[in-house]
Amino acid sequence: MRLPRWTIAVAFLIWFAGLLFAIWLYLLDRRLTRELVQHRWREPTVFVSSVTGREFTRVYGLDWRTTPPVSLHAIPRPVADAFVSAEDVRFRHHPGVDPIGMLRAAFADLRARGIAQGGSTIDQQIIKTRYLSQERTWRRKLVEMLLAVALDLRMSKDEILEIYLNEVYLGHSGGRPVLGIEEAAQLYFDKSAPQLRLDEAALLASIIRAPNRDTPEKRPDLVRARRDAILKVMQDHRWISDAQFDDAVRRPVEFHRGAIPQPPYPFYMRALRAEIVDRIGVRAVIEGGLSIVSEIDPAAQRAAERIANRAPAQLASRFDWIAAAARQEPLEVAILSVDPRNGGVRALVGGSDYDVSPFDRTSNMKRQPGSAFKTFAYLTSIARKRATPATLLLDEPLTLTVANESWSPHNYDEQYRGRVSLREAFEHSLNVPTVRLTEDVGVRRVITTAHRFGFEEHFNDVPAIPLGVTEVTMRELTAAYTAFPNLGVRVEPYLLSEVRDRERKLLFTRKIERSRVADEAPTYVMHTLLRGVVQRGTAARLKRYGLAYAAGKTGTTNDYRDAWFVGYTPDMVTTVWTGFDHGAPLRLSSAEAAIPIWGGYMSAIPHEHREPAPPKGVTFRDIDPETGMLWRGGCPGPVHEVFLDGTAPTHQCPRGIIGGIVRRVFFSRDTFGDPPAITVDQFRKWASEADRDRREVKGVLGRLRRFFD
User: Fold this and answer.
1) What is the mean pLDDT of the segment spanning 19-36?
2) Which of 48, 180, 236, 253 is deepest in the core (most CB within 10 A)?
3) Which whole number is the average pLDDT over 148-156?
């Protein structure tokens, strides 16, 4: 008799589902064997700095904790028995599951018409915590029971209890879970687990069910009752004597707060963990016992953390509006340092205080870079030989029309200076000449340059592009600037160099990612402009820190909400950002907000001071700074300027009486100055104009989309 097709199909589905379930159980069982039965859970993961060649920390377990596992033999027997009494009194006699406890839980579940009571043994709790979800279903319970029996068959009771005591959850501290009896002893009693008294061990065991709610501070009577009940169970089972019981119950119920050792460099370690998982998978991280080589420079990391932590208070002490805003939300500082020679991330601080906000602003935050993005517009123009550092640009009011909408860029100080050299416009971060320069070379070409330098964003084809109106990440910006000390070669930043397992087998090794994104000669010319920003421009304050040899670019957004500085030496590209997460205005230029942070950090760490050698394809000439022409006696200057071959000026500067008249008529200009801070009235005006500009740009883009749709 032939079976109906639907019957065959259903039978096949049931068989297939069973096969998948069996495979899943097999894989879980293999993990159990590797991690627990083979005692890998006790093995530390060791971290070594490629900079110093020395170990800088070691961590244990899935959560990368610095507290080493405590041996069961080091703990007094009554201390361990207190936890057994509280959680699984028949632990030493059942085969991984407790039939009596299961019956008790089953009756409770029937009365509640659902899973109300777990009846889990210590074996089951280990399995659930390590391998399964917290959902309360019969299917999860069945898997938990099967694996618990397998665990009990393969390990001794002491080995299983040791795992449990090192992993039991006992509350939170500083936003981190308190795991294991050793951490709990240090936090709640300021002593190690082997030093715990009997009453202290029973007190810890009494809070397992609700460690964040049932504490001596919040519910002292309940905690005392539970503690004494645990001690009574121990007395009834003859695990403690009557004298020990009497002495323990007479003790007061109280904690003596201590602290748990925390892993160093939390922002860096969190980012490093993500990179490890991405490269070798989460399983290797879970199993532990790895040897990891990282690109961290511990001294630089400590300096970055110290500066980022102190900077908000220092700014708040100087500017009352910063202090007022910081009462609503913390002022954040992020620092990222990359070695441009190989891309190694030497320091990474994603915020001012990890315990307050662990959000990594170096890679997960996108903000407008402001004037720090101008570099790519100027490089585009120089590389295409549309301009030179001596080219004169017009700094006068400008109105552009795009799709029947008008937009007028403004300089930060609301001043216009007539004709200025390209170098002056860049060093002093003038917006209007920058927009004119970009219009001349073409917005699309600037966008192409940005993409070549590694920016992945979609840049809208609008005139404001060179002013940094498109949001980018700090990591992208820092990586893009590695091309300047390398004269056109960009390197991809990375934290992880090498991973080996416990047998020293190589699991991963980093291949440095380099790419030429610009020719040497125009990049060198751009480098001299970036040096000028520090020597004479918006970053001149760095000279107070002894950093006159550095190069870089400030970035202040058009609404004074973000302050950036991206600077570099031959062996270090460092980006600093400061601002409020929700966009409260700083009302400070980068020179006032970001430069002191960058200067304080870089002056605290060792780095090289040398200059890159001029490459082939560049020419040096003495220039009259007012006219951009070749210098001769009787003219102002000279300024020793660099040009791409074939682009240097050929005419000499005017001098004498006629030259003076020409200069007064055609080349007079106002002084430069980026305001360090703006008044409330100035900010209101700026905010109004910035809001209007955003609405105009948004309207233009909307009409363009509708037109092409």
Assistant:
1) 63
2) 180
3) 84
Q: CA 476, CA 183: separation in Å to the nearest integer?
A: 39
* 392 lies in some domain: no
* Phi and psi torsions of 132, nearest 5°: -125, 170
Please give the Cα distance from 430 to 393 (Å, whole number). 10
Q: Whole-angstrom Cα distance, residue 395 to residue 419? A: 6
Q: Which entry of 87, 162, 287, 476 is annotated as an active-site residue?
A: 87
Tokens (6 digits) for 461: 């084809």
Taking CA 172 as the corner, what is the angle to CA 303 and CA 151, rounded to the nearest 5 degrees? 110
**Statement: residue 707 has pLDDT above 50:** no
Q: How many domains does the chain have?
A: 1
Question: CB under 8 Å to 206, separation ≥6 — which residues?
Answer: 86, 214, 223, 226, 227, 229, 230
Dihedral over alpha carbons 666, 668, 674, 680 (to 10 degrees): -90
Q: Identify the domain containing residue 113 by its residue range.
A: 72-250
474 has pLDDT over 50: yes
Tell me the pLDDT tens digit for each residue of 531-561.
999 999 999 999 999 999 999 999 998 778 9
371 is catalytic: yes
CA 538, CA 527: separation in Å to the nearest integer? 15
77 occurs within a structural domain: yes
Query: What phi, psi does 635 have (nearest 5°)?
Result: -100, 160
Residue, of 437 and 149, whose pLDDT is higher: 437
What CATH number has the domain bearing residue 241? 1.10.3810.10
Residue 677 has a pLDDT of: 55
CA distance 89 to 205: 12
Q: Which has the closest alpha carbon to 119: 201, 164, 136, 163? A: 136
Judge if the upstream peptide bond of residue 493 is cis by omega within 30 degrees of 0: no
Considering the candidates 85, 206, 294, 371, report the single residue annotated as catalytic: 371
For residues 510 and 498, the answer to whether their CB atoms sit within 8 Å is: yes
What is the rounded CA–CA span in Å between residue 35 and residue 287?
6
Q: How many angstroms separate the CA atoms of 284 and 615, rounded?
A: 46
Q: Which of the four pLDDT bands, split at 50, 70 and 90, describes residue 268?
A: very high
pLDDT of residue 704: 41
Label residue 659 left, alpha or beta by phi (over 0 means left) and psi (-120 to 50 means alpha). alpha
Residue 191 located in a structural domain: yes
State the pLDDT at residue 290. 93
- Among 307, 65, 287, which residue's Cα sits nearest to residue 186? 65
The angle, 0 to 180 degrees and rounded to 10, between the axes of the packed helices 180-189 and 157-167 is 40
- Cα 355 to chain centroid distance, Å, stands at 13
400 alpha-carbon distance from chain centroid = 39
Instruction: Supply the pTM of this predicted model.
Output: 0.86
pLDDT above 70 covers a percentage of the chain that reads 83
- Tokens 């040009």, residue located: 643
The residues near 382 (Cβ < 8 Å, ≥ 6 apart) are: 388, 389, 522, 525, 526, 644
Cα 610 from chain centroid?
30
State how far the alpha carbon of 524 is from the alpha carbons of 74, 133, 642, in Å: 64, 57, 9
597 within a domain of the structure (yes/no): no
pLDDT of residue 686 exceeding 60: no
**Averaged pLDDT for residues 14-27:** 61
pLDDT at 537: 95
345 CB-near residues (< 8 Å, 6+ apart) = 268, 271, 295, 296, 336, 337, 338, 493, 494, 495
Residue position matching structure tokens 């993409």: 451
